[in-house]
Q: What sequence folds into this?
């Protein structure tokens, strides 16, 4: 669970930095990337429990 939270926080920091540098805060990228991180975490967790 700590890996999930740290990866989301790391992405938020990078997204904010790029948004400040390029003056482009695209919320779509933010939402879809966080959804992808959570989905990947859940799939990996299920596969880990399977083996």
A:
């Amino acid at each position: 669970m700590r890996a999930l939270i740290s990866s989301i926080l790391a992405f938020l920091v990078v997204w904010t930095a790029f948004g400040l540098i390029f003056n482009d805060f695209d919320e779509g990228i933010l939402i879809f990337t966080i959804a992808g991180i959570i989905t990947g975490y859940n799939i990996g967790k299920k596969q880990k429990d399977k083996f």
Observations:
- Helices lie at 2-22, 27-50.
